[in-house]
Amino acid sequence: MKKLLRVLLVSALLLTLAAGAIMAQGPGNAVHSPEAIVNDYPVAELSEKQIADLEFMYEEEKLARDLYARLSEEWNLPAFANISQSEAQHMAALEALFIKYDLEKPAAASGEYNNSELAAAYQEFLARALESEAAALELGRELEIKDIADLEEVMIDAPEDFKAVYANLKAGSENHLAAFDKVSNDERGSRGSQRAQNNQSGRGNMNRNNNRPNRSGNRK
User: Fold this and answer.
1) Where is the composition biased (Low complexity) (predicted)?
2) What are phi and psi for residue 31, nearest 5 degrees?
């Protein structure tokens, strides 16, 4: 009995360790660490454009994080909170490049940006997204589509470590886009079902009203 108990305990321990190892790894047994990704590549000589692209992408990811966090407070849709957290991870991945190349990353409070165009865009996007849940979801889709396009553009002629990070971010943005599409479709389906129920209820009321006598005593 004691031997069997020891075997069970050892098996449980091995399963626990294996689960921890799996959680610490991603597809292809790659560890989820931004530093590990960028440090697998040699240090490159960066151009001013490549540095400017990095700064822009960092603030664009920050804009998405800030906006989704604000919308998660306004609308009862878990997708905004979840994707906001994912955008924070995107920022951490880009930050690893700032650290590797000893660059100063843009620093600003939530909703504030060093890039004046992004600062103006945040206010415009927020105003649109506060109009309705549908508007917020559509804006989320637009942001992810733009992010994917921007990442594809900055990947051109980027160093290999930059490309690796940008490719991971692009895959994440594609997942975000799919999530927004799903939530939008679910919301439309829910609204359509509610309208159908309301219409059915309205037809029932009309039938009852049509059976009421008119002033002459005859039924309509």
Assistant:
1) 197-220
2) -70, 135
**Tokens 């620093």 appear where?**
107
Output the pTM of the full model: 0.73
Residue 94 pLDDT exceeds 50: yes
Tokens (6 digits) for 174: 């594609």
Query: Helices then strands (H, E): number in the chain?
Result: 7, 0
Q: What is the DSSP string of 52-88?
A: HHHHHHHHHHHHHHHHHHHHHHHS--HHHHHHHHHHH
pLDDT at 127 over 60: yes
Domains and CATH numbers, the chain: 46-194 (1.20.1260.10)
- What are the φ/ψ torsions at residue 219 (nearest 5 degrees)? -75, 145
Residue 110 one-letter amino acid = S
- Distance (Å, rounded) from C-alpha 220 to C-alpha 217? 9
Distance CA 19, CA 14 (A): 9
Q: pLDDT for 67-83, tens place per residue? A: 999 999 999 899 999 99
Residue that is written with structure tokens 């649109």 in the block: 128
- Residue 74's beta-bridge partner residues? none
